[in-house]
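Researcher: Go.
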Amino acid sequence: MRIYKFGGASVRSAEGIKNLEYILRQESGPIFVVISAMGKTTNAMEIVLDHWANRQASELVAKWQEVKDYHHSVAVDLTGDEQWASQVLSPVFNQVEKILSGVCPMDYDQTYDSLVSYGEILSTTLIAAYLNRAGLDVCWLDMRQILRTDSNFREATVHLEASQQALTDAICGNSAQVYIGQGFIAGNKHGQPTTLGREGSDYTAAVVGNLLNAESVTIWKDVPGILNADPRLFDDTVLIPELTYSDAVELAYSGAQIIHPKTIKPLENKSIPLYVKPFENPQAAGSVIQAHVAKPIEIPVLIVRKNQVLITIRPLDFSFVLEHSLSKLFSLLDKHRLKVSLIQSSAITISVCVDNVKRLSVALDELANDFKVSYNEGLELLTVRGVTKELETKVTADRDVLIKQRTRRTAKYLMKTV
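Model: Structure:
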């Protein structure tokens, strides 16, 4: 069996869903399809949650109506059938509205997983119904009942052994041509919905591939494959046709958006190749990530992480920071799920670069209990693998570089945003 994953950009419109149908019709054997929420639905559901949590009733109603109207419009565009669109989507709308009719619970992360996960439920319910109507033999699966995780809400870890039996039972229970499941969402042993972290649909596809001993996993994107830089930020980008698992992990950890950082391990464990192919041009070769490649990457790779914050701490008593403060700092960062992308230290200071996320302000307040804290916002971290002096001069020209770190082949530049 092969695993296909389609992201939100691929299925954001009726045209995209019909292209997904075209791709699936090229397959002869059974295929497992992992699908994300459509378009920017996850962002919209996060806003719905915030309005609910803040008891902003009118704003909540208006934003939820936008989500409903968007999905209904795509459904009508697919078939021209208003009644069919309502029949397919109304049961899911009703489930969400039943949740929203109550008082928002205090546990934000758990509530997030229960509510925001409906973005994927909506997209897969609509797409499965459309494909069945179009004549494909489709089995819709609820990944909240199949993938078993811990209860680390919003960043849950999949328990492979517990998930294996549930997935096997779901697949063996029928002989469908296409199995459709949601990316990003799962459930704990108590039956509560969990999520795998933003952009976690890639991880879902990798886990399903691992559990089913898949022939391959393919992620369909709106780019030609894995490029050496983001084409929206850099000119003359180049396709990287093949990478090793190690290459992919290194690039993902540095912030490459093309692959979710947790995706590689489940595939590497069973030597399952991962293809990244262009959704708009299915016949193109794209890129492949696998154990061995014909030749290593020979061109510079540039990765940008935007909206970064540089946090600098110093002890209140001028003691040596590395001797007394390192474990306390990183325990606190882990507590607030702040992922560190750069570290710089001196005798009495430690600086860390993290993403600017909602929970950052709480972490800064807690740090201030034990340290003198300063921070810089609105920064950009550029990682260059295969750096040269000429390239360094080019990418840092007219930029205010706050921190530069360089090894034999990789350099990091933390700079103020232009």
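Model: Residues 313 and 373 are 5 Å apart (CA to CA).
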